[in-house]
Amino acid sequence: MSEEPQRHAEAGRLAVVTPWYPSLNRPFAGSFVRTMTAAVADRFGSVGLYHPEDWRRPDDPAEAELAGRAFARLAGPATGRVPVEPRTTAEGWELTRVPAVIRTKRNYADWGRTHEEALRAVLPGGVIDADVVHGHVGTYGGWCAVRLARPGARVVVTEHAAFLDRVLDQPAALAMYDEVLERAHVFLCVGDALRRQIAGYLPHHAEKLRVLPNAVDFDARAMREEPFDGRLRRLLYVGALNERKGTAKLLRAFAALLAEDPELTLTLVGPEDAPGEAARLAGELGVAGRVELLPPVPPQAVPGLLHRHDLLVHPSSWETFGMTVIEAVAAGTPVLATRCGGPEETLAGLEGTAGELIEVDEDPRVIADGYRRLRARSESGGLDLAEARSRLAARYGLPAVGAALAGVYGLDEPPAGEPAPRIGAPEPAAGSVVGAGARQ
User: Fold this and answer.
1) 116-130: pLDDT as tens digits
2) Which of 17, 35, 189, 429 has the smallest C-beta neighbourhood within 10 Å, fewest atoms?
3) In the chain, what are the domain boundaries?
């Protein structure tokens, strides 16, 4: 896109393209996309959501052929295709969901092109007709946005993916990402660690990368009503249960802490990459009776979980943002989180007020030692969750992020002298985590 679109005093239609959005088979996916859209939707006459939804093609050739035929009926050539009809969401937005049959082998460039083809087939004229087109995730929604936006539209792309290093390590996907960066008018990263990661792979686009965090609906996340006694005995983890998220290390740290205080409990909430592994490890460590395993819960249920616990533990090795950490503070629950990219940005200046940050380390004792320090500070009254919530709302609440995003969209002029819309954490210190596979 060589020409710069005109700035719009008022934009009629916003289109959002995303590979992740709540659906029947993935009801909790992409809730952050919904919240980000809500932050700015009232500035547009209409909002259209476009969701190419991954359908995994079977490995067996005969089954793959059958899946291909079914896909052609659902989103193939117009002749003989089952019509894909948009539906209206609870917010009044128009949602177009189309299946995109992808190969099980992780070929990210091929997956991006599959999303483009699936969406193009159901668009009138093969074009997204909107004043602003916002694509989420570079090789998916971003690729579709730059390929399908109508001439003159303003194209914005946001990157969230924690697995981005795997994408950019593939030459074809890296070339696709390069094209997305070249053609998008604005390219946003949800955190500075992610910005530096992308700049490490594509340094010639470093000046185009801007930081704009995810939005958090603080109005939907009330502070706890029960008084907080500071004892930190009911521990909670929310997220996928796998190696990158550090749940095995957490279980081992919990076993050590339980030996010191038998009143402790740990609740793990989320899907398991290896079903049954967490229960097996808890049994092996002798803590099964104090560990509760729960399946994933919808986003609206997370505040209630946080209110029923004393501490959120977030031991991940790499996060682009760390939404759960902010949600915990919003609910009045302190946090123990690793310096894994996102949390040290989101909690910048609030570590002593909202919780404790620890280093990423394979040794479970790092988690246990961090808990002991935080508990001592909490029991002495050293935390101020109300103050922390207020300061995070000013950074990440819908009004703050919506105003910044409106400037990105060209609806409002950005403040004079600001090279890029940016709210939230300041520049992190040199040497902070950039993520596996990143080029420095």
Assistant:
1) 998 998 898 999 999
2) 429
3) 11-211, 219-393
